[in-house]
Design a protein that fits this description.
18 strands; 23% helix; Immunoglobulin-like; 6-stranded antiparallel β-sheet; globular; alpha/beta; 19% strand; TIM Barrel
Length: 450
Amino acid sequence: MGDMIKNGVHGYSKEERYVVPKEALIRERLEWFRDQKLALMMHFGPYSQMGMDASWSLSRTDTWARKNVDWESDVDVYRQQYIDLNKTFNPMRIQPDKWAEFAAENGFKYLIFTTKHHDGFCMFDTKYTDYKITSPDCPFHTHKYANITREVFDAFRAKGIGIAAYFSKPDWNCPWYWAPNMETPIGETRFPNYKLEEHPEIWEQFIDFTHNQIMELMREYGKIDILWLDGGQVKEKRGLGIRMSELIAKAREVQPWLIAADRTAGNENENYITPEQAIPDHVIHVPWESCVTVGTQWGYKYEDTYKSARELVRMLIDVVSRGGNLALNIGPQPNGELPARALQELSGLGAWLKVNGDAIYGTRALDVPEADGVMFTKKKDTVYAIIPLNEGEMLADSVQIPTDRPIQKVICLGVEKELRFTRKGKGLHVELPQELVGTSPYAVSFMLQE
C-alpha cells in the first residue's frame, strides 16, 4: 500500500521492503513481540472533550476531518479553540491502576499509549514545551496523576504488560514545524509550511526538539519496549528526515531492547509494519501489527458504536492466523473513565481468550490456505484449528477440519478430553462433545497433535 495517508489512515510498507534488524537483541525482541498478539491502544488528550478524532481537523487541506466541525466556520478561530482545549482538560476520574487491571484480566499483553499526537499536546511532563498536561494552564496539573504517561506506564508495567510509547513525529504546535510569519499559512497542510532548503536552521531546531522529547521518554519513564512513531510523512524519502537512525541509536544506548516502529519508513527503523484500520487477507512473513478502533474513531466519540465481542474475536483470529498482532484502540472519555460499552465488548474477547488463548499467544501462522472457514496457527509441533462462528450460527454434532497432517489426537480447548475423529476426504471429521452441540460460541479451537 505504500506510505500514503488517506483520511488520516496510513498505508503500510510492503513486506518486500522489510529490513531485518542487524542487532541480534532486536531480532530476539521481535520474537517476543510476535508472541504477544494483543495490544490495548489508547488515544487520549484534550481533543477527547470534543468527541472528535485528534489533530487532523487542524490541517486546512484535510477537509474530511472538518466535516464534524459544525460550530465554527472560521478556520483560524477554530484552530485557537482547539489549541485552548488544554485549558479545560481535567480527567479527574482517571484510574491508571484500574485500566491496567482491566487490560491484564482480559488478555492484553502490551499497551500503546499516545504520549503526543500531531497536535503537539504532550501527555507527559516534557521540559521542551509548555503545551503539556502538567502546565499550570491545564487544570489537571494539580492532580496526583498529573504526569499521565508516567502513571499509565507504571501501572501497566506493574501488571507485566509491555509498554509502547506512541509519539507523533509531526508536531503542529511547534514553531519549528508550522512556523509563524511564513508565506504559507500555519496549518495549510500536514507538512511544514516552509521550504526546508530555504530555512534549514528552522528544521534543525525541530530535529533537536524531537530528539530531546523522545530521549526524555527513554530516560525518565522506565522500561519501554516499543517506540511507536506516527506521522509517516516526516521521513527521509520525503525530504523531511529527522536523523532517525541517529535517534534510535541514542535511544538504544538507554533502552538496548527497544523495538522501533517508524511507520512506513521502509528501512532499518521500521522493525514491524503497521496496517491501520485494515487486516491483510494473506499471511505476512515479517513482524506486523494491525491497529484497529473498537469504536468508529481513534479518540473518544459521544454516542459511538462499538464492534461486538464476536467481531473482535474474529479480527484477532484473522490477524493471528496470518502472522500478525492486533492492537485494539479505545479512547478514554474526557473525565478519564473508559467507555462502558467498549469495556463490555472487550470483556467478551477476554473471556474467549481465557479458554482459547493457547491457540493465540506464542503462535505463528501455519502457511496453508484458509479453507472452509477454518483458520490455523501453530506452536512448535502443535497445530491449532480455529473455527469462527457468525451471529446465530450453531455448532452441529461434528466439524470438518481440512488438513493432511498425520494427526493422532484432537482436543477442543475448554473441553479437556480427546475427541473422536476419522479421516474423511482431505480432512478430519471431528465429533463434538454434547455440551457444545447447539451452542454459538464466538469461535471454537482445536489442538491437533501428531
